[in-house]
Amino acid sequence: MNFAHAYQRNSEVYEGHMMDHAWGHDWMLAVWMVLLLVLIVVGIVIAINYNKPKQSDSDPLNVLKARYAKGEIDEKEYKSIKKELSK
After folding, report:
1. Does the N-terminal or the C-terminal CB of the chain have fewer CB atoms within 10 Å?
2. How confident is the model at residue 79 (pLDDT cuts 50, 70, 90)?
């Protein structure tokens, strides 16, 4: 057996070895891991927002606060209306 034959024989042995193909699968694993992480984060965000109590825009106190914030009513009128709504 000469050197060329031994080299060829060794390359054939390692040609189908898993380590030769590992780099081809590492990027796929990384992509799946990132996708899984994104799905977990999206699921957590949806779960948090789903359980959050919703404030209605038609709630009189919220409408009053919005009008006061926009400057449509002054502080005196705001307090007066808020007192009426609290009854």
Report:
1. C
2. very high
